[in-house]
Amino acid sequence: MIIDAHCHIWDKTLITDDLRDMLNIYARQLNIDPSLIIDVSVDQLIKDMDEAGIDKTVLLSLDYDLILKGNLNYKQYNDYVANIVKEYPDRFIGFMGIDLRREKAIEEVERCVNKLGFRGVKLWPVTGFFPNDSKFYPFYERVEEMELPILCHTGVSPPRTYLEYNRPVYIDKVAVDFPKLKIIMAHMGDPWYTEAIATTAKNPNVYMDISMWQCEFKWLPALLYQTLFMAKQACGAHKILFGSDWPIYTTLASLKEWVNVIKKMKIPFALKLMGISKFTDAEKKQILGENAKKILGL
Ligand SMILES: [Zn+2]
Q1: Torsion-angle region of 272 (φ positive above 0: left; ψ -120 to 50: alpha; else: beta)
Q2: Considering all CA atoms of the chain, what is the largest pairwise distance in Å, rounded to the nearest integer?
């Protein structure tokens, strides 16, 4: 089974002026047509998943209206994602989005899980909070109790968001203090991947997804294979999850190409000489789906 652990969805009604602005700047940075990441649809996503052989995708809701102002309300975004999951229960798994500074964060998680069927939590500290702040501990306590995995952004973030909250090491204290809480660090913390690997290697409950590394695949493939290899050696293949960040980074490598990076693993000859070897079929299977399956309790 192939599972994409990191994917986004929105439509015209959800895109505020601020978000559109952000996506436009983002598109210019990636040197792509903005409509590729703005005008997206569930039909297109399912088509891309089918082409890539992806069975299930984790759809992440986002709570960004404390930073990207507009007509959007975070509860509406959670409702929106829940409706898509409800329509395609075999293909999608929903993670609710919440900004931990919200007074009713716990209440919203409970609503999302009990009423809307969400299976996890997406945190996006780029809006301006440190995930290891002890005032959020009651939230983590509740989420641990509810056995919900958390997928937390780490690494570089889009224009109009803050960088300083995104260091992978901020996950360490939460992971130590809540040992039963499963935390997936998005993007292998790129560009702080050594910090992400250190945090993942030392904490049995921390994992990483490989989304956004399509940039390295496209621009500096040696770094991609080298980092994947380092992550596997230091943390074990059971700690690495396939993720795409559709529709953003799939503009650099299609979903199918990205799956094939793991499936076929065509390591450049020079790297082979440096001692970097292919992953075993069992390790590839773990990364492509088995790890996510376990974390999601499927
Ligand atoms: Zn993302």
Answers
A1: alpha
A2: 55
**What's the CA-to-centroid distance between 285 and ligand 1, angstroms?**
22
Contact 66, 32 (CB under 8 A): no
Say whether pLDDT at 199 is over 70. Answer: yes
Report the predicted TM-score, pTM, of the whole model to 2 decimal places. Answer: 0.96
Find the domain containing 9 and state its range: 3-296
Specify the number of domains making up the chain. Answer: 1
Strand 120-123 with 3-7, pairing: unpaired
Which pLDDT score is estimated for 253? 96
Q: Quick check: bond before 221 cis, omega within 30?
A: no
- As residues whose CB is below 5 A from the ion ligand 1, the structure lists 245
**CA 275 / ligand 1 centre spacing (Å):** 32
At 207-266, the pLDDT tens digits run: 999 999 999 999 999 999 999 999 999 999 999 999 999 999 999 999 999 999 999 999
- Rounded Cα distance between 64 and 154, Å, is 15
CATH number at residue 136: 3.20.20.140
